[in-house]
Amino acid sequence: MARLARHVPAGGLRLGDRNCHRYGLWEQAGRRGFDPLLRVAKGVKLPVDRRLQDGSYLSRIRPRRCRANQGKPAIAVRVIEYRVRDGSKVLRGRLVTNLRDPAAGPARELAELYARRWAGESAFREVKGDLAGRPVHLRGRSPRAVLQELDALLLDARSAPEAAHDRSLS
Question: Which residues 6+ apart lie within 8 Å of 11 measured at CB?
Answer without folding.
Answer: 33, 34, 35
